[in-house]
Structures are given as C-alpha cells and as structure tokens.
Amino acid sequence: MPEIAEVARIVHFLRLHLVGKTIRTASAVDDQIVFGKAGTTGDAVSAALTGRKVISSGSQGKLFWLVLDKAPHVVMHFGMTGWLQIRGVQTSYSSLYRDTDTRVETWPPKYTKFHLTTTCNPAVEVAFTDYRRLARVRLVDCPGADIRSHTPLKENGPDPVQDTDRFTLAYFQSKCCASRAAVKAMLLNQKFISGIGNWVGDEVLFQSRIHPEQKCNHLTDAQTKTLYEVIRYVCQTAVGVLGDSHQFPSDWLFKYRWSKGSENPTLPGGEPLAHVTVGNRTSCYATRLQKITLDGVPVVVEEEKNKEEVVEEEDGGRQEEKKPSPKGRKRKAEWGSTDMPKPKARRGRRAAVKKTEEEEEEEEEEEEGVKPSKPVAKRGRKALMR
C-alpha cells in the first residue's frame, strides 16, 4: 500500500508537471465504489476538473489533493493499489508499479478511474488508476487554503514530517499512555498519526526494538521517546528520497521484510524473522531483538503445549497416552453422557477462505478512521418466494 513516502513522491510529480497548468479535458468512469463511497460520482469529478487551473498540490499522510482555482477541490487516497500516472514520466517507485513506466503504449492505462489533459503544448496527461477499487476520490467544497480543516483531512492525526508543531513528544506520549492497544495497531490508526502503514510501522518498531504486540500503556518513557524519534527519522528519510527503496539504508528491515513464506527468513547477521498478525495486518519482526516487555523487562511468553503430548498421572508419575476418540455408534452413545465433552465443531472450507475484497475494504476504511458501512442482509429463498 502507498504510504507517507509514496504519496509524497506523487505530490512531487504533480507539482513538477501539473501545478500551474489549466485542464482542457477530464473524463471519469462511473465507479460507485471509488467515487460513490466518497460521496461523489465520476461525472462530478470530471466536471470539477474540466477548465480549471491547478493552483497547488499537497499531502497529509496517505491523503493528497489538488487545489483548483475554483472549488470544489479533489482529495484522493490510493488505498491498497491505487497510483497516479503521468504520460511519458516514470512516476513509479518499485516493481509493483512496473506497468507505469514510460514505455506503456495504451492510454489511458488499464484500470483508469479518471484522466485529464492540459491545454499547454505539449499537453500533460494524467491518469488515476486502481485495479482493486480500494482507492477513494472525493470533492471538497471549501477555500483551498482551508482544505485541511475539512473532512476527511480534519479527522486524521498529524503528519510526522510536515506537522512538527503538532506531532511532538508530549503528544505522542499522551496517546501511548491512554491506549491499551498493541503498538503496531495504534501506529496504523490514521486518527492518531497520518501516513504510517504496514511497512513503515514494521520499520520503526524494528529500529526501536519493540515487539509489534507490545501494549502501548506498557511502554516505558525511554521506549516511547525512542519510538517517537525513530518515527520521525524513518518518515523523514523515506520522504526525503521520495519512497525510492533503493536509496533506503542497508540496515533497514524493509530490505528483508518481504520474506514471508520462505524457509527460515533471517537478517544478514543471522537474526531470525517472524510474522504475526496485528491490527488486521501481517507484521514482520526480529524475534530475538524485539521482545514483549513489562516495565522494560522482557516477558517470557509460554508457548502453547502440544496437544499430542502424554499426560502424567498424579499418583505414580507414570505416563499414558491419550485415548483415541470413540467411533461409530459407541461414539454417539458416549457423546450423550454427561461426563464426556462434546466435540468441537469442524471448520468448513468457507471458514478457511481468504478475506474478500469487501473485508479488506472495511479494514482499509477502519485504518483511515472511516466507519465502514454495514453489509446488506441477504434474503433467503423463502423470502424471495413470497
């Protein structure tokens, strides 16, 4: 997912190629998710852009915008796979966006949600793409200078790079002390701080030597101060190179965190890496360097006992293996007795299915601080036959 550095990268290109120019034409598809869930339509966005001069572009965390010479202005969020392409310009920052390079012949590109062309010669052509439709494009009707005082920007926390007057150590410590959430989940909460996503969250916790499941209110003052300083360092460094991972320091976890699924992933020094789900996101951490602590002292977490181990008898110290579960009719009879525990319900195939795009969309909205909409209840066959 594009985070604070990647968004800063695209704003850099917008300021370089689009700001100060007038939009001759704009066109958008009728996407009821990308536009509709942000309270607008593709037609409304294209109408707001057509004939307007782009005055400025800015960002706050993962959100960025275009201020036009007349309201409404356009505020965007990339979601998981959104990106902004400029024809003939290499805006991409990794192989994930290899389709955005200058050799792409089809224009507008595949999965375009809206695209525009300027009046200058040669014209600048810009396209907003998103194949998973988790991005959001909305219109904000306000004076351009006040855009950050309006939804959705006003609901989000301070940007750790731009808002140094708001993102202070005192602010950060107060938020940590008041939260009992896992520290990784708190960092992903855009209401608390804007711009930190999965890889930035893992990076700052790795460099701070803090476990992603560490409770915020169990952090010591020294740990909180270290984490605050590392957040500023990582975000400023990543933004400074416009999200170009090739320029990240060689000792960053980023260089090695994408090893999920490989056998025994490690850092160059041999430190083992592991993955755990925190805040609905997969977190990567160094198991020997990042420990859960209480008052700064590592806590030993007892591993789950093997269900197949033998049970020791209290009277003689002898061991006997667990008896197998009864089968057939005998099993049915014994399950009915009061001293026999009932079997656990089996998990069907549906329970093991991967998350749908709708579930990921809700998680994305929660991360942005937007309350996800409730799903519509499905009607059964009997209801439909009435």
From TrEMBL:
<keyword id="KW-0378">Hydrolase</keyword>
<keyword id="KW-0234">DNA repair</keyword>
<dbReference type="InterPro" id="IPR035937">
    <property type="entry name" value="FPG_N"/>
</dbReference>
<keyword id="KW-0227">DNA damage</keyword>
<protein>
    <recommendedName>
        <fullName>Formamidopyrimidine-DNA glycosylase catalytic domain-containing protein</fullName>
    </recommendedName>
</protein>
<dbReference type="InterPro" id="IPR012319">
    <property type="entry name" value="FPG_cat"/>
</dbReference>
<comment type="similarity">
    <text>Belongs to the FPG family.</text>
</comment>
<feature type="region of interest" description="Disordered">
    <location>
        <begin position="306"/>
        <end position="386"/>
    </location>
</feature>
<keyword id="KW-0511">Multifunctional enzyme</keyword>
<feature type="compositionally biased region" description="Basic residues">
    <location>
        <begin position="343"/>
        <end position="353"/>
    </location>
</feature>
<feature type="compositionally biased region" description="Basic residues">
    <location>
        <begin position="376"/>
        <end position="386"/>
    </location>
</feature>
<keyword id="KW-0238">DNA-binding</keyword>
<dbReference type="Pfam" id="PF06831">
    <property type="entry name" value="H2TH"/>
</dbReference>
<keyword id="KW-0456">Lyase</keyword>
<feature type="domain" description="Formamidopyrimidine-DNA glycosylase catalytic">
    <location>
        <begin position="2"/>
        <end position="135"/>
    </location>
</feature>
<feature type="compositionally biased region" description="Acidic residues">
    <location>
        <begin position="358"/>
        <end position="368"/>
    </location>
</feature>
<keyword id="KW-0326">Glycosidase</keyword>
<dbReference type="InterPro" id="IPR015886">
    <property type="entry name" value="H2TH_FPG"/>
</dbReference>
<dbReference type="InterPro" id="IPR010979">
    <property type="entry name" value="Ribosomal_uS13-like_H2TH"/>
</dbReference>
<dbReference type="Pfam" id="PF01149">
    <property type="entry name" value="Fapy_DNA_glyco"/>
</dbReference>
